[in-house]
Amino acid sequence: DGGITQSPKYLFRKEGQNVTLSCEQNLNHDAMYWYRQDPGQGLRLIYYSQIVNDFQKGDIAEGYSVSREKKESFPLTVTSAQKNPTAFYLCASSIAGTGVSVQPQHFGDGTRLSIL
Amino acid sequence: KQEVTQIPAALSVPEGENLVLNCSFTDSAIYNLQWFRQDPGKGLTSLLLIQSSQREQTSGRLNASLDKASGRSTLYIAASQPGDSATYLCAVSITTSGTYKYIFGTGTRLKVLA
Asked: Sign of the C-alpha dihedral, residues B97, A28, A68, A110?
């Protein structure tokens, strides 16, 4: 079945450590997104990519980095510069929008990151 | 700056009731509006997407309306069931420097009591 796979489901980070969250999709979507969700808050956009080898910062990109070397994959690295990384991280994808017809987003099941 | 608000933040209703969830946005220049469902500890599942030129969309017991000019959308759930218990989020799509992105509301946490 087509979908988005995020791994791991749970992740723990030690002080000063970088960790990488995986996101893979087999929907043949061009656009991919990373969001952060904190309790009682809506989703906030970290990074997004409309095409391979290109990505843009979202609203809260500081302390995070991404790469988009393949259409299917959009890994997110939470660096040691991110001082408050504990959150639920969601990856999404969509067919890249053209004109005014923007397609719906499909989401993975998320990764919960905690600090040790 | 586009802001999306959902009221109420939480709602409890007895099984069988019809209910309405509200979503408002500050800038009417949107391309579409999407309603999602999120179960605890899970990702988001798309329920309905309304293009900016449309007034409503229906899927089963769900009906979503869009009044772009007034910056409002409602999600109507008919004959609610305990299985409808979840957090419901709305999101509007906007364009920034030629690329599209979504702005999310904080959600309404719904509990349907058996």
From this structure: positive
pLDDT tens-digit profile of B57-74?
A: 999 999 999 999 999 999
d(CA B104, CA B108): 12
How far does CA A109 lie from the centroid of its chain? 11
**Residue in A62, A69, A76 with CA at minimum distance from that of residue A23:** A76
Q: If you measure CA to CA, which chain A residue comes closest to B108? A: A40
Please indicate if any CB of chain B lies within 8 Å of the CB of A40: yes
Q: Which of A57, A54, A55, A38 is nearest to A46 (CA)?
A: A57
Identify how many contiguous H helices and E strands chain A contains and give both numbers. 0, 11
Q: Is there a contact between A102 and B31 if contact means CB atoms under 8 Å apart?
A: yes
Torsion angle (degrees, nearest 10) of CA A89, A91, B30, B78: -80
Contacts of A84 (CB under 8 A, 6+ apart): none
Taking an 8 Å cut-off on Cβ atoms, the answer to whether B42 and A109 are in contact is: yes
- What is the DSSP-derived secondary structure letter of residue B82? G
Letter string b/e over residues A16-53, b meaning 16 or more CB atoms within 10 A of that residue's CB: eeebebbbbbeeebbbbbbbbbeeeebbbbbbbbbeee
Query: Which pLDDT tens digit goes with each residue over A15-40?
Result: 889 999 999 999 999 989 999 999 87
Q: Tell if the CB–CB gap between B52 and A105 is shorter than 8 Å.
A: no
